Structure prediction request, 193 residues.
Amino acid sequence: MAISERIDLLLGLAMACAIGHTPHIERLGVRGKRRQRCGDEWMMKRGFVAIVAMGLALSACAGIREHRGFVIDKEIADGLQVGVDNKDSVTKALGRPTFTGQFNPNDWYYVSRDTAQLAFRDPRVTEQTVLRLSFDAAGNLTQIDRSGKEQIASVDPVGDKTPTLGRKKSFFSELFGNIGSIAQPGLPGSQQQ
Prediction:
């Protein structure tokens, strides 16, 4: 078979597969015998390749779930009692806090956050729990507060610039502006006589 005939045959097969028509193709087999290759085999292979390609493409866009912070056991956290528990019993039950209060070291915070992210998008918070435990000066538990993701605030910074006094200098005037000014009297680095 000549190269041009093979190209015509492959183009015809590609066109037939593209429109869904699968003709039987005859081809020379072993020892010069003709054998038939059914178009359904080509469709099966084509379908398999398409399924594998789609699987790879979709796995690249798979969502990412992530947990950050403290893993709060709800049964243990619900078992804490105001006036009964102290810092030692809370440490044994829950462990060390995520952080303590900046202005009051007797406020302990246990923070837990679950996020989900799809492909290259920004992660979004699916669940958040902040458990705040307050202790008195003797170390006894006085208050238990819980908050969720309703406390999350979205802050968008403003792109405005704050005007400053002085003159605006270009890059090159900043770079070369001090040339020759070192030898002036009264500046650091100049010699006084």
About this structure: The mean pLDDT is 77.
